[in-house]
Write the structure tokens for this entry.
Amino acid sequence: MPKLDVAILGATGAVGQRFIQLLEHHPWFQVSEVIGSQRSAGKAYAEAAHWILNSNPPPDVSQRRVKALDEPITSPLIFSALPKEAAITRELELAEAGHIVCSNASANRMLADVPLLLPEVNAEHIGLVEVQRRKRGWASGTLIANSNCTVMPVVMALKPLLKYGVRRLHLVSEQAVSGAGYPGVSSIDMIDNIIPYVPGDEQKMESESRKMLGYFDGEQIETLDMLVSATCTRVPVLDGHLVNISVELDEGPAQASIIDDWTTWQAPDPIPSLPSAPPYPLQYLDQIDRPQPRRDRDAGRGMMTSIGRLRDCPILGYKFAALSHNTVRGAAGCSIMNAELLAVEGYIEGVQIAETAEAT
Amino acid sequence: MPKLDVAILGATGAVGQRFIQLLEHHPWFQVSEVIGSQRSAGKAYAEAAHWILNSNPPPDVSQRRVKALDEPITSPLIFSALPKEAAITRELELAEAGHIVCSNASANRMLADVPLLLPEVNAEHIGLVEVQRRKRGWASGTLIANSNCTVMPVVMALKPLLKYGVRRLHLVSEQAVSGAGYPGVSSIDMIDNIIPYVPGDEQKMESESRKMLGYFDGEQIETLDMLVSATCTRVPVLDGHLVNISVELDEGPAQASIIDDWTTWQAPDPIPSLPSAPPYPLQYLDQIDRPQPRRDRDAGRGMMTSIGRLRDCPILGYKFAALSHNTVRGAAGCSIMNAELLAVEGYIEGVQIAETAEAT
Amino acid sequence: MPKLDVAILGATGAVGQRFIQLLEHHPWFQVSEVIGSQRSAGKAYAEAAHWILNSNPPPDVSQRRVKALDEPITSPLIFSALPKEAAITRELELAEAGHIVCSNASANRMLADVPLLLPEVNAEHIGLVEVQRRKRGWASGTLIANSNCTVMPVVMALKPLLKYGVRRLHLVSEQAVSGAGYPGVSSIDMIDNIIPYVPGDEQKMESESRKMLGYFDGEQIETLDMLVSATCTRVPVLDGHLVNISVELDEGPAQASIIDDWTTWQAPDPIPSLPSAPPYPLQYLDQIDRPQPRRDRDAGRGMMTSIGRLRDCPILGYKFAALSHNTVRGAAGCSIMNAELLAVEGYIEGVQIAETAEAT
Amino acid sequence: MPKLDVAILGATGAVGQRFIQLLEHHPWFQVSEVIGSQRSAGKAYAEAAHWILNSNPPPDVSQRRVKALDEPITSPLIFSALPKEAAITRELELAEAGHIVCSNASANRMLADVPLLLPEVNAEHIGLVEVQRRKRGWASGTLIANSNCTVMPVVMALKPLLKYGVRRLHLVSEQAVSGAGYPGVSSIDMIDNIIPYVPGDEQKMESESRKMLGYFDGEQIETLDMLVSATCTRVPVLDGHLVNISVELDEGPAQASIIDDWTTWQAPDPIPSLPSAPPYPLQYLDQIDRPQPRRDRDAGRGMMTSIGRLRDCPILGYKFAALSHNTVRGAAGCSIMNAELLAVEGYIEGVQIAETAEAT
């Protein structure tokens, strides 16, 4: 089965590398264009990129020539790992030119007509694509975003609890260094130390979580009416963001019911059969000292969210910890899964998908 | 001026070592007895203790023979860094035998007649010594405790805010490994990882903070009526516990007023002139990414608490971060300062103190 | 195809866990007995073992009851991850009782009739099994050892160079903490620190490397006449031992020839087709800053040795760095591969192996 | 006593900060000018510099305006922490203009007429200043350099052994991240990892050590005839470079004699009385697992070199480990001590020094 060509914007950076790694054996997509900064353009990928993941880049990508950001792109599907400033206009230009753009950049996330898509949580927000195209006069292109990497474990864990009425949410994150890209956080700041501040993330935690859990009424997203207080800190961990969550619910379900809600939760078809989807998106760990970043970030090939330590919160009622791999589920993996959903739902022309994953 | 002999219980462990280090040049006290486990007894201290602090133990202590826990103790003043189980009965026996016992162990902290003393915060709780002696029929001995190391930055930061009415407190700690003693946390658990659980500390945060901030009515401590929710996590940091604090106050002071309360706060005389007391117990750091454990734990020779990031909490009103050195201010340093206060207040016979620090 | 039952001695420790993890999907062997300390005996494995690897133990092993070291063992094949003291007599007893014992313990490594087997390097040493059985009067059992985990990358890298005459070897290792087991090295010793000493390893580097590279004359191993100077240090890395190697050769091959020797080197049949064998045991990395423990330890599912930085040594002629995963290639993985070789060579009764891997 | 004004070139970087910290209470010198990059120029120092050391910059320096590199400098004494490229011409210009320039940059270290000064080791190289002035036609200025930070522990430990004839030297370093400046090494490269390569340092180890230990014949430095093989690696340690050293001596002194040579070694007057000089430059640690970076780097306020593990090397005769603080003894502290020696020896006009430290 021929695979769809995809281009990676910001291909040499930390998230760009993760896109390339995750797409190496993808059943539907293949990396055919890598786009980098002016400094990288013209070089072979292996030479331009300081590969920060394990081992080495896939051989076929290693030899590919890096294109400049303003060169023409021929791939119908584009994954964007651009820095914010570079993303603002370029992503919209490419969508306008007819490309399907699945972006991990924060630049356009909060635009009213850009869905902040996380298939298990808000697949119905995909309907905003029609609104976006109509409003902007685009025929076939679209721009889809995924959320900040720290928001991911929070909304994943909250989704099955929405039925109880989520009112107030108190979040304290302990975030991995890969969330800041490469070179990102200096080792001088991280040896024997933590940093109690992550630029921009507290605000994103508060705004993006409300949008993602919001209601799509056919025209726009009505954000969830939920009070959020977020504190974001950086810890000497490579990958995996852990969030300490206290939550107030309208109803007062037993803790056992909540654990059951989490462990049995599955997204509706066709989501569980998407190539990147884990069968069950959540796991609850019984051990009192879990989840832990190093031990649990790779659950479900980095696409599961691990939860643990559910117990009483004297102030808000319930508290627990949730963890996701920040550059897989929280970035490249989510963008890829968004594209898979778009493919299955018929938004991407020319893509060939296996029978089993087709929309019903 | 001759110095008072002191004995260290649990002298070979992590906190025992810190006692020895901090007492090396103390103006009033000198280490004359080191008490260890059965395994250590009889050896020279330098041989029995795996010294985990920088450099080496002081030469005079290095050569001292370690005594067993059941050997007689002659020093009038005793600092206890015993493990909980060993502390329960031995500390009370020694106090009954007439010793002044300043303990860092958690064993007897919550006994109704044992003050949980932190000079700047609750010096008046020292009055409980009279109650204790009367109730137990002790003539000259007493048992004084200091709190858990993670509670310390919390109560230090809250003390100047009590006037506004502290109602609800939400705490998420990021604690250093030295809080677990030596060998304590395995490096296999701490490389590229955090552990979202510290055995026993969440409960201590909730109970000890209320006792320390409570009111001594001449007979007993009336604990502060305050709702506390605590989450304790372990991070790959050597020393320095950071706590992310959200607090609800009855009144709504301006943030600038709170910062002013912190930076100008001084304990009443004679506390600021105690040898271990920093002139100002609190510092507020303006930089948005502070306090940080490695950079701020040694402020005031490890006895200051550093605060930063005061801002709105959408749920509880105010939030900020506070940091203290866990084995100095949070353990040995606090015990020593408690003994200094006892000395100045006349509770320790035979101690000679400098004029300047005498009680008025 | 039915699988052969195997027992793991020391199953709850760091290397024991790695045995269980690597055997989870093994084509020929299945874990049917887990043997632990007196403290663990009688408990379910998941309860007895503090699992230090990622995720959780395999479900079937999790529920298995841990046996005490003196309980009868029924599995014909036994992997030993026992501590040295426990291994000395128990391994020999079990071999005498007819079991095939593949040991990772250092206890019996240097016995003259125990092969220190590393299939790619000295498969012919397996002949020592006959000597062992004859000398000890054993019918079907045997005891096979693998070397210290730090020796592994050294002998792997040297094997293809033996033809040039290896005369003198200067080694400085930077070893991961998992080499010390669990809990092993305290995090207090490893944060912002290295330890320039690893108990026992320098001596093992010098003796075991000469035995492994020695010549089996049909009766005994004649150790390689090679001068070795080893320094072993511990660094804050989870897995992966790196050794900085300087070597003097009798001949003076071009560096390009040496790199070619490494990258084209394959062990003779049937070794490359053993289930745990990587097709090529060595890889040479061109990047000037490789190999690195985190990025290269998992090459070949942890069974490859990565080499880099070959250059002139002004004193000994050549220098380079070599890296292996210490608990896979350097411990459990090597023992398993040794058992695979024994199976293929007909030393294990009752094992069923796939056609493709049979001895020719 | 009025202090001499000094200027710091590259004042906002890692070594520049260390200069400022070490000079805060210096008895002879005071920081009166801070020179930074174009980006920093015009800002207050506290705003321009991301302070990476503990606590905060000294208050007086915090408020000082950062000057651009091309602005005039009025201070007679200049410490340079410039990057190599910026240093090449600017340092020579300033020396030509009459300034005393003590440089930590590598740019001009190997110029034949620039002494690579380390007071305890080669104070007599200061005579090269006359040659430099004569050759270049300078009246009062001069340029003095200190060596690479990894060379420092090596030459310190070797100096007392020169009398035995040092023939061959094999070095493997484990270097701290602060050696690469700030931001320097990314935390993504240092968590759970080491890097077996430090750009440029191996070559410097081999050339600078021979120059520093060389003989000044009144006109030039005759480098020591010594064969050096160096391997440099980077480890996750904040400060403190450890070097594993094997050495061949012409004579064969007993190890006890060598230890005695080290522990009793003192530089000739007036060096031990310089403000930054430790009374004894070397300490030998008996514990088998020392020196360790975190525990020993601050010995002698960071100016001592710690040695340990002296034992036989089967190849070169002797081996041991040596450690120095890389940004104190290995950089800023050495430059300051060099300036102190220049002052005492009369090379700096206008400086007022205490009687006790004057040259005899």
Remarks:
- The CA atoms of residues 7 and 33 of chain A lie 4 Å apart.
- Chain A has twelve helices and 14 strands.
- Chain A touches chain C through eleven residues (CB under 8 Å).
